[in-house]
Amino acid sequence: MPSDDLCFSPATDLLPLIRSKQLSPVELCEAVLERIEALEPTLNAFVALDGDKVMTAAHAVEASIQRGDTVGPLAGMPVTIKDLAVTADLPTQRGSLSMKGEVFGTDSPFVTRLRQAGAIVLGKTTTSEFGWKGVSHSPLTGITHNPWKHGYNAGASSAGAGVAAAAGYGALHQGSDGAGSIRMPSHFCGVFGIKPSFGRVPSWPVGNMDQVSHNGPMTRTVGDAALMLQVMSGPHPWDHYSLEAPPADYAAGLRRDLKGLKIAYSPDLGHARVDGEVADLVAAGVAAFEEMGCQVEQVSDAALAFAQDGPELIRFFWAVHETAGFKHLLPEWEDKLDPGLVACIKAGEGHTALEYMAMRARKLAYMEAWHRFMEHYDLLITPSVSVAAFPADRLNPEHWPQHEWDWVQWAEFSYPFNFTGQPAASIPCGFTTAGLPVGLQVVGPRFDDLTVLQAAAAFEQARPWADKRPDL
Q1: In terms of residue numbers, what domain contains 362?
Q2: pTM value surpassing 0.85
Q3: Of 24, 82, 266, 363, which is the active-site residue?
Q4: For the chain, how many structural domains are there in total?
Q5: Which member of 9, 128, 176, 181 is catalytic?
Q6: Who's near 244: CB < 8 A, 6+ residues apart?
Q7: Residue 82 appears among annotated catalytic residues
Q8: Residue 468 lies in a domain
């Protein structure tokens, strides 16, 4: 198999070849590392990479297979880890000069699970500083470039993961999502990403940002995401929010006839601004579900009147939580932090505990309203993001309102489902006239990750995307 084809091939195709000794993990990892070496000066998706460790691990997996040992379900597959996630043997710097060189000495539980399944960690992928914004830039690493257009936003905070998936840096990539950070880079880079139900994949250290962050896979195919999510999921004692139930067999249950599935479609959640090309591509994608026999209902603004509280809620909590998390850095690091993060930190100052609790009551009512809405539908479809990629040296597209820290205005579709903990995926649905990818979002009721994956797999079969590669 040609080297580039190895790098772009799904894990679901490669794993049987590895287990049957038709493909060497060493050959696979060599091909991926060669591609990374060739493209990284241009794309800048990695913040830490250790090729020697990768090849040592690849040789070890190959030796196990040659001996006939029992190996894990991801044996020999390269995988990347986002630089917000803790790893034992690689720095965890979180896109910030304030953490440069920091090594924790312990793996987050899902990293341990990936390793135990036989996956080989390539390195750490780039993130915006502390994951605070949806633009692929940080003070530590500079711009991570969209593979479809150099200098353009690849999405964040899982920027490097999205670029790695799109650019053929192997099949499996981990992202995390606190307000859209799996779905936004998936949208901007033209790959598949799913934010599973909150607690499905355990997090550690457990966050102190009101429990909105989810870990999940970013891949070129739905089948690979299902396989990776299965490995990462399940309860863990270090995370008291992790779900007690083990995951469903996502890979085995992926194929399903969607006929009769009841789907709500909202082009704007009743309040969001959306660029015309994005709206048109998503609407065309929704038609595919109608062609598959789903009952698609475009819901009225009145039915989503409760959703209009979302913008005020996210802006309050985003600023206050950044203040609580990072204000202590300002005396020493203010001039070295992302200026937008500094502005956001300062915007969250001065609120009382009573004000916080009053807003939290509104947020809980907002969450309940979403769960009640979903009782009437199997799925909800929206745009993933309001805009296609724009220059990564900007916080907002030039034709949008400008603000010193508010990037959320073009990402109104993602954070509601971080608040509610529902599963949500971004699925590639086409390209703008400028050749930039667009994704549609599929949201399920909480805990129903499988139906989201099944809908994505059916859409993937109806409107294939994995054969499309950026010209690099």
Answers
A1: 3-462
A2: yes
A3: 82
A4: 1
A5: 181
A6: 235
A7: yes
A8: no
